[in-house]
Amino acid sequence: MSAVFLVASTFLASAVEMVEALTIVLAAGLARGWRSSLTGVAAATLTLAVIVSALGPALTVVPLNTLRLVVGSLLLVFGLQWLRKAILRASGFKALHDEDAIFARELDQARSATRPDERKLDWYGFTLAFKGVLLEGLEVAFIVLTFGSTQGSIWLAAAGAAAALVLVAGVGIAVRAPLARVPENTMKFAVGVMLTSFGIFWATEGAGAQWPGDDASLVGVLAFVVASSALLVAQLRRQLVGSPAAGAEA
Amino acid sequence: MSRLSAFARFWWEFVVGDDWLAAAAVGLAIALTALLAHAKLTAWWLLPPAVVVILYASLRRATRS
Fold first, then answer.
1. Which of A115, A189, B26, B62 has the largest count of CB atoms under 10 Å?
2. Nearest to A206 by CA among B52, B10, B26, B58
């Protein structure tokens, strides 16, 4: 059961981050040329590979309970950020994530920057693509490493991320446009719920408590987080009616 | 020094984000869970409702700011 959640969580989280990275890379490629932006993608991918391959084996030597306490606490704090934003979006307090709008803005900025000699590498395009892939990729690396090491299977977690990479990159190459039809906000909500649920589960175990039913109780934690989040969305939607604060965090 | 502080700030924003109170409350709830567990008391029930309360408080701060 945990293995299914593990792969599903890393797949969803990675897909969301890769959709965002793809938007930036496409903007960089179309505005500044593909050579510089793809070089930036390659450099960022290499950096991420070094980070994962250096930290991955190091995490496997940490005692499991300590790892679960540290990773569970980090995931919980990190997951609550996602869930908080997702609830604010779902209730209307924060603008929905719009890949088309982000793409148009990035494209506009990239086109307005000074163009260098065509024979040289365009550092603007390189940096834009490098930063986009590295920053979004760091979140993927963080999730893969924490989920994988705590469940004792970094490769299974990496498989979920790799599947997302193949899917997003494949569709991105095929359509050469931002993936605006991907239900990104719903996916972000699901990732927030999963990160928070795993965080609660592992932090509790790491603190020395025993779940009734062991791994099976993860389903109960997940259901509890989903139900609570739905109630919070409903409550905020009611609060929004007649409130001037709508869109305050957009 | 400025690079070091920028690096630290990046990781702080990456993990903790813009609501450090929520992160501190999560730490407190986990510490309480550990205290209960070490006292040989049932402790698994504490964190799930604590997280919902923390989330609720964080959302209230966000919607009122």
1. B26
2. B26
Name the residue among A138, A158, A12, A5 with its Cα closest to residue A86: A12
Q: Is B8 contained in some domain? A: no
Cβ A228–B52 below 8 Å, yes or no? Answer: yes
Minimal Cβ distance to A200: which of B31, B47, B64: B47
Instruction: Determine the distance from the C-alpha atom of residue A81 to the mean position of all C-alpha atoms in its chain, rounded to a whole number.
Output: 11
**Residue A69 and residue B38: Cα distance in Å, rounded?**
14
CA atoms within 13 A on the CB side of A131: 10
Q: How many domains does chain B have?
A: 1
Best of A66, A84, A134 to disrupt the B interface (most B CBs within 10 Å) is A84
Contact criterion met (CB below 8 Å) for A233 and A185: no
Is the C-alpha dihedral spanning B45, A12, A148, A132 positive or negative?
negative
pTM for this model (two decimals) = 0.77
B44 contacts A210? CB cut-off 8 A = yes
Domain that holds residue B22: 17-64
Which residues lie below 8 Å from residue B29, measured CB to CB, with a gap of 6+? B46, B47, B50, B51, B54
Q: How far apart are CA A67 and CA B20, in angstroms?
A: 22
Number of domains in chain A: 1
Domain that holds residue A233: 2-240
Return the residue in B12, B59, B64 with the most chain A beta carbons within 10 A, the one to mutate for interface testing. B59
How do residues A88-111 score in pLDDT, each as one tens digit?
Answer: 998 888 877 666 777 778 777 777
Q: Which residues of B touch A212 (CB under 8 A)?
A: 44
ipTM of the complex: 0.91
Tokens standing for A232?
């919070």
pLDDT of A196 strictly over 80: yes
Tokens of residue A78, six digits:
């990190």
Q: Give A120-136 pLDDT, tens digit per residue.
A: 777 888 888 898 899 88
B37 touches chain A (CB under 8 A): yes
